[in-house]
Amino acid sequence: MTDNIDSIISPEQKAVWKKVKDTSPLAQLHRRFWLQGEYKDKLLGVHKGVHKDRAEEGEDDDDDDGDDDIGPECHILDIGIPDLEVTKFWVRKEYFRMYKQCDHHLETMRNAMKSPSQIIIGQPGIGKSCWILYALCRRLVERKPVMWYRDSIMYLFVSDGVYEATENPRSTLFKTRVWTLVDADGDSIFPPPLGQPGVNYLHIFTTSPKWDQWKRLTKTTSCAFAIMNPWTRAEISAAAPIHGFAASDPAVDEMYSRFGPTPRICFDLLKMPSRLNVHKDRFESVLSNLSSRTLQEMVHGALILKFDDVTHTILLLKRRGNDLSRALVVVELITLDVEMALRNQLRKETQAERLALYRSLANLEAARRLAGVVYESLAQEKLQQQNPIELHIFPMIKKRPEGSGKGEKLPRWYSNHGDGADPSSVQSINIRRTDNDVFSSMPKLIKDNIYYAPQSPNEVAFHSFIMDNERLFIFQFTIASYDEIENGILASFSQDSLPYFVFGVPPTLSEVSCPELKGSLEGVKLYSVVVDPEA
After folding, report:
1. At the N or C end, where does the chain have fewer CB atoms within 10 A?
2. pTM of the model
3. What percent of the chain has pLDDT over 70?
4. Is the separation of the CB atoms in 512 and 528 below 8 Å?
């Protein structure tokens, strides 16, 4: 046989390995998945007509919140074997994507001089240990030899059973390279016996974004990195019943909104009040000490994958784009509560401090959304201090986007303020501002010439507005080349006439676009204006 222990281990090394007892949890796992093939179709992503290639497609877009990232291939995997780290968990689309990336890299590099390794990096508590179990079970139903480094012991799964290494095996005596699954949650650094020069394993190492945990592998193996995306709200709801909560449990929803999108936060902390209190104290402490300087330091550390307990409390690591092999990262604020705390702190800081933070972040593609929050603060202050408010707004133009792609692209609205703008189209507005109102709830009566801005970013779907002679100007500040207007935005206003919706952008952004307006937004006048925070 090509998949038994004799096909993997050289005779001089075989004495190191002993077969585990038939009653052990790992032997039960082997019987259930290798011999009986339970859950095979589901683990491969072939379920209800969904082929595994579709399940593994990287469909992510960092401009999309991904709340529809659930398909028929997603399911509850009930291992049902006591004494394992996890016995039941939700299989995400991300798990299929990560498996496909590992398979591609490790098989492509199987015969390379240096043994290949795949490092999977994700937010603490995201469920990397569950992915290890998913990958293990999938290798078993595919009947492919696999090793699992568990509790500082190496286990080898082959056709004739499960074998335990009684001492550190010499990988150079392996006849072939075998997938070797290692989870950093069980080890503070990559296990020394697996990271020595000349190792002959196909390493797969799941870890938090802490460089020290895997730096040895970058020297001893041919490394590839992949970023595991955080959970969407829909995924958390789908997994809630596994953890004893209702799918629409308000307590779970509050944890997601306030502290972050991971199962550890949404489920584990709720079950352990003492740990939740510790997390709350740390969360409040970090927010109370948040400043431009500390945020800048944390972001720059996060971008080189050096997270600490403070960093992952308020920052969220995501994948940029849908090419898993490039390992491009995005760093964002973990929740709107953190964003609101940052906005409040920015109001207290000097313009020079905020400008320094903006300049530091704006040139980092991975921190653009953070830079957008800082830009909004600067642009808001500029209009709040300007009197009269004098702006030159350019009407946006509807056209079809350029570029190749499948099918006909839908029209978009494009700004016309950059190079080649028609000077005759510009409209100058001059509004005598009488006051500013930073509101916690939408005012019932909107008064003329008062510049209104919400205190909380999730209070309304815009950044500010002002009424002048029955003309309503709604502002949305952005540094992104693509933005959207929420459909329910006009529900906050009672006037009959359609408003002027104005995208405020920095001078470095030559163009901004948004989707074609439909429904209640149809007919809204769209404009763009350059708001230079340094002018």
Report:
1. C
2. 0.87
3. 90
4. yes
